[in-house]
Amino acid sequence: MGAAYFSVGGLELVSVSIVYTVHPPPPAFSSSSYRAGYNPASEVPSPAEMEPDRPIGYGAFGVVWSVTDPRDGRKVALKKMPNVFQNLVSCKRVFRELRMLCFFKHDNVLSALDILQPPQIDCFEEIYVITELMQSDLHKVIVSPQPLTTDHIKVFLYQILRGLKYLHSAGILHRDIKPGNLLVNSNCLLKICDFGLARVEEPDPSRHMTQEVVTQYYRAPEVLMGCRHYGSAIDVWSVGCIFAELLGRRILFQAQSPIQQLDLITDLLGTPPLSALASACEGARAHILRGPHKPPSLSVLYMLSDGATHEAVHLLCRMLVFDPAKRISGSDALSHPYLDEGRLRYHTCMCQCCYSVPSGRVYTRDFEPVAERPFSHSYENSLLSVWQGKELIHRFITEHQQGKRVPLCINPQSAAFKTFIR
Ligand SMILES: [Zn+2]
């Protein structure tokens, strides 16, 4: 399969899609080969008919609800950012996330469609952001019984890396890439979400960065070893773990503690060379050197599934490199031949950047665009107090809304709101 799905003009291309189910999520997951048993009339309601307003998820910080936009009846996601003004740290973090959501312009990165109108500044405590509503996420898809073909995996991995290349080109580290933060839609469109832990890359290697990042299973070895400075390679490691999880449908490194997490990694990759331990903290280095010398056992990756072809394992082994300096970049990973079919499929029937004319498909000149400019965080240094932050965020939201649609605000009398604030 795979190549047989494609024809030159794209006319015979069968799109991979997740079909909506009425209730409950995650949606059924389909490709042409599995569509025979479906009754489309009963299984594809319009999203608006699906469900009343309800909570759909919890990010690192904040709650997400599925709601209806009263201006056009469209189902959208509403995210509440609570406890914004508790202290200066949370104030900075939320303002950073808000600015990022408004900065992003990429189909594989979730962005803000709107921000609810804040009350007068004295009553301003919470921020509500509206984003596009996605049907599911990769975690739900992986643990569901729905079939996950090589074509699905290729088109998902392509989009993850395409979004990541954009983020990294803007100088942003996501720092919490995991299946639950990769939203997927009915047509397999994928968007990276949850920027609660994201930050701008630190160019100065002498500056310390927090170790409290990335869900443990997806945490890169340099973070597990207490490295004081890290870069975009930590996100690529997470993507490698997710790639293996898509192939094997189980978590690649599922440990009980950070030390055991490191042990599982060295079981697979072998004992790292001393050069890869240079930035590790004393305890981590001692732990690795004290243990037995382990040979690499990468051949077990071929046993993840039938989809673990030579090409797949080759790319996987370029992402799961212990030394971040030798790990492939997100941008270079996109050039790997394993992703050629995913690129073709994405740009033949899923993207917004190419279009069809009677004589065929007109492809964009740049399949994986970078950000127009780096994300600026210079304002953060001038943020010195919670009150000043409150004023700044209030002004940012008000300015962001100017000249746009009729502003929305929360109706505190609504029944849904009362459960929402809990
Ligand atoms: Zn395109």
Short description:
32% of the residues lie in helices and 13% in strands. With 422 residues, it is α+β, with helices and mostly antiparallel strands. It catalyses: L-threonyl-[protein] + ATP = O-phospho-L-threonyl-[protein] + ADP + H(+); L-seryl-[protein] + ATP = O-phospho-L-seryl-[protein] + ADP + H(+).
Give the low-confidence spans. 1-51
Strand order of the largest sheet: 3-4-5-7-6
Which structural class should the secondary elements be placed in? alpha+beta
Report the oligomer: single chain
Q: How many helical stretches?
A: 14
Gyration radius, rounded? 22 Å
Helix content: 25-40%
Main sheet characteristics: 5 strands, antiparallel
CATH class of the largest domain: Mainly Alpha
CATH topology of the largest domain: Transferase(Phosphotransferase), domain 1
Distance between the first and last residues' Cα: 49 Å
Number of strands: 14
Strand content: 5-15%
CATH architecture of the largest domain: Orthogonal Bundle
Hetero groups bound?
A: zinc ion
| Whole-number count of domains | 2
CATH-defined superfamily of the largest domain: Transferase(Phosphotransferase) domain 1
The overall average pLDDT, rounded, is: 83
What global shape is seen?
A: globular
Element-level helix/strand string = EEHHEEEHEEEHHEEEEHHHHHHHEEHH
Polypeptide structure, described:
Keywords: ATP-binding, Cytoplasm, Kinase, Magnesium, Metal-binding, Nucleotide-binding, Nucleus, Phosphoprotein, Serine/threonine-protein kinase, Transcription, Transcription regulation, Transferase, Wnt signaling pathway. Pfam families: Pkinase (PF00069). The termini are far apart. This protein has a five-stranded antiparallel sheet with strand order 3-4-5-7-6. α3 (88-103) runs parallel beside α13, α5 (150-169) runs antiparallel to α7 and α5 crosses α12 (340-349). It has helices spanning 40-43, 47-50, 88-103, 138-143, 150-169, 221-224, 233-248, 258-269, 282-290, 310-319, 330-333, 340-349, 386-401, 415-420, and strands at 17-19, 28-30, 54-58, 63-69, 74-81, 112-115, 127-132, 136-137, 172-173, 182-184, 190-192, 199-200, 355-357, 360-362. Mean pLDDT is 83; it is low at 1-51. It has 422 residues and is of the alpha+beta class. The protein has two domains: 2-133 and 381-420, 2-Layer Sandwich (Phosphorylase Kinase, domain 1); 137-362, Transferase(Phosphotransferase) domain 1 (Transferase(Phosphotransferase), domain 1, Orthogonal Bundle). Helices cover 32% and strands 13% of the residues. Bound molecules: zinc ion.
